Prior knowledge:
Bound molecules: 1,3-dihydroxyacetonephosphate
CATH class: Alpha Beta
CATH superfamily: Aldolase class I
Strand order of the largest sheet: 1-2-3-4-5-6-7-8
CATH architecture: Alpha-Beta Barrel
Low-confidence stretches: none
Oligomer: single chain
Shape: globular
Mean pLDDT: 96
Strand content: 15-25%
CATH topology: TIM Barrel
Number of helices: 10
Number of strands: 8
Structural class: alpha/beta
Order of helices and strands: EHEHEHEHHEHHEHEHEH
Radius of gyration: 17 Å
Helix content: 25-40%
Largest sheet: 8 strands, parallel, barrel
Amino acid sequence: MKKLMVGNWKMNKNGKECAEYLDAFLEKYSGHREAWIAPQALYVKLVINSELKAGIQNCSEHTDGAYTGEVSPRTFREMGGHFVILGHSERRQHFSETSRGLNAKIRTALQEGLTVIYCVGETLEQREQGLTLSLIGDQLHQGLNDQTKATLENLIIAYEPVWAIGTGKTASPAQAQEVHSFIRSILTAKFPSFGQKTRILYGGSVKPDNVEELLAQKDIDGGLVGGASLKAKDFLALCGDM
Ligand code: 13P
């Protein structure tokens, strides 16, 4: 399977910037690695209309109804959307999302046919206290318990150590591989037919100068990238195109 690079643009780029970026990126993109983009939801149609797979950065656990301000995974799928990022640490931190609460969002999004990128990761304090693996185990179990087996082939896990997001500090390839291999072991025990082939992405200060050594690790299937996905040139480099 090709390596997968996902750009999480967070709350950045207006429509004009989004369109200019897509033009510049598509001019040089070879498809050597898969490239997916989650822009601000308001501009997601621009990505849907390009040849890249488009995502949103959150969605409702409901498909429709009286939920003012929410984004429906069903509507997003119907308009040609492909994936949703759920459980990002910024949403856990600023919007009080919990793994147990995310379980319902993951279920609905998968049942509606979206690919879910479920994010897990520890804070620096938790790492220093030796809690990394137990915490990630809990995040996986709580988020993934009782999911419909038939939908799990559309599940992707992203390991994003909170201390590495937007800080310029990247987990070393060995640190990342240790956690990815642990995630793989949990997935394999939980879902014997899917665990081995589930994609596990690394996120946290992925840049052109560290991407190759990260991707060389056995259980790192790609990257979930914030800052370095905002410049077409850098994202092309991450996709192996420059
Ligand atoms: P940075 O690549 O800016 O560290 O952000 C990572 C991230 O949060 C991707 O979801």
